Amino acid sequence: MTFVPSSALHGVLASIPSPSVSYIDLGPLRIHFYALCIIAGIIAATLLTNHRLTKRGAEPWVVIDISLIAVPLAIVGARIFHVLTHPGFYFGPGTDIWAIFRIWEGGIAIYGALIGGAIGAWLGCRWTGIRFWSFADALAPGLLLAQAMGRFGNWFNQELFGLPTDLPWGLQIDPDNSAFPKGLAPDTLFHPTFLYEVIWNGLGVLVLLWVGRRFGLQWGRLFAVYLIWYSAGRIVWESIRIDPSEIILGLRSNVWAAIFGVVIGVIIFFVQKRRHPGREPSPYVPGREWSPAGTVQSQESGDYVDVSEPQTIEVTSGTAPGQATSPAESTPAAK
Questions:
Q1: Is the distance from CB of 31 to CB of 23 less than 8 angstroms?
Q2: Which site in 153, 192, 210, 270 is 20 to 30 Å from 202, CA atoms measured?
Q3: Domain map of the chain by residue range?
Q4: What is the pTM of this model?
Q5: Which InterPro entries match (predicted)?
Q6: Radius of gyration of the chain (CA)
Q7: Per-residue pLDDT tens for 105-156?
Q8: Could you give the 3-state DSSP secondary structure of residue 44?
C-alpha cells in the first residue's frame, strides 16, 4: 500500500480532531463511548422499526420480542466474523487469545452482525408470527440509521481510518495510537472513513424511506435495496482503509463481503419481485394475525374497524318486503 509522503501534507487548511478520550470511569465501572454509540443505534433502530411495523398492523412493540433474540446473535455474529477475518490479531506468537472476548476494545464486523441478526430475526419472527420479510423491510431504514450512529464509535477509538490525505477534512490521529502507521510524520492526516459512512448511511435512510413509500416495496425488496446501498458504499470506504485485513485475490476481505452484499441484494430483489408481484396481505403469517382489542381487520382494505359497540347485520336474502327477520337472521357483528 502506498502512503502519501509527509511533504505532500503541508498546507492543510483544516482538519477533524479525534476525541482525546474513548471512555469514562464511574467508580469501578468503565463505560466505553464505542459501546454507547452501538447501544444508541440499537435503540434508534428499535423505535423506527416499531413505528413502521405498527403502521402495517403489527402489535405495538412486538419488535422487542424479536430483538431479544436478534440483537445478541447479531453481536455474536459480528465478533465471530471480525475474528475470522483478522486471525493475526488473536492467534499466533505474541497475541492474546483472550482478547477475542474483550469486545469493548472494538472489533465487530457489520456483515457478521447481518448474518447473526438474520438468524435471530428469523427465530424471533417464528416466535411472534411476524413475516420475516415484513420485519426485514420495516427494519431496513433503522438498520442504516444504527450503522451511521455506531460509526462514531470508530471516531472515539481512533480506528478504521483511511489513507493519508491533505484534504481540509483530514482526520487527526494521535501519533502514539497503536493504529498510527509507522514511518509517517506525527501531523499526518487521514481520510475520515467513519464520517464518509455516516453521511452515506444517513442519506440512505432518507432514500429507503422514500423509495419504500413511493414504490410500495415489500416482500423483502426494501431490505434488498438496503443491502445494495450499504454494500456499494462499503466497497469504496473499505478500499481506502489502511487497518490490517486479510487480503484475498488482491482485495480486502470486507471488500469481498461488500461485493457479495450487492449481489445478494440484487438476487433478493428480483427473485421476490417475481415470486410476489402483489402486496403483502398482512405483516403476520396466516393464522397468527393480531388485531387491537375491539376491532376486526377489513378484508378489503386491511384497516382495523372498531366494533366495540354491537352492530346489527340484517340478512335480507329470501325475505319479503316488510317481513321481519328472525332472531337468527339478525346477529351481532363478530368481534
A1: yes
A2: 270
A3: 8-275, 295-332
A4: 0.82
A5: Lgt (IPR001640)
A6: 26
A7: 768 899 999 999 999 999 999 999 999 999 999 999 999 999 999 999 999 9
A8: helix
